């Protein structure tokens, strides 16, 4: 084993690269699609409610993804401030109150 592979994790680097490419390409593509749906919904022959609903759904999904991402990144700060850690439950039986 070489010195470089002793401290460099190739698998973790590949996972980060793939996730970054997916998130970095998919979220802007969904945003662009929602904008284009809005432009198509305002057609010359009148508004199209189905396209407006799809646009609102895409923007809602994007807003939820961004909110979850911000909360995930700041989870340690939130746990420190409010005294609740998201992962200190133990197992699912404790969370759901099962015996």
Briefly say what this structure is.
The protein is mainly alpha-helical. The protein is about 75% helix and about 5% strand.
Describe the structure.
The chain is mostly helical. It has one domain. It contains 5 helices and 2 strands, in the order H-H-E-E-H-H-H. Strands 1-2 form a two-stranded antiparallel ribbon. A hairpin with a 2-residue loop joins strand 1 and strand 2. Helix 2 runs antiparallel to helix 3. The N and C termini lie far apart (48 Å). The model has no long low-confidence stretch (mean pLDDT 82).
Set out the fold topology.
Blueprint: H1 3-7, H2 10-41, E1 42-43, E2 46-47, H3 49-73, H4 75-82, H5 92-96
Helix pairs in contact: 2-3
Structural features:
99 residues; 2 strands; flat; 5 helices; two-stranded antiparallel sheet; mainly alpha
Radius of gyration (CA) equals 21 Å
Task: Determine the N-to-C terminus distance.
Answer: 48 Å
Largest sheet: 2 strands, antiparallel
- Count of helical regions: 5
* Oligomeric organization of the protein chains: single chain
Structural class: mainly alpha
Helical amount: over 70%
Mean pLDDT: 82
Poorly predicted sequence stretches spanning 5 or more consecutive residues: none
Tell the overall outline.
flat
The helix/strand order is: HHEEHHH
- The total domain count is 1
Beta fraction of the residues?
under 5%
Strand order of the largest sheet: 1-2
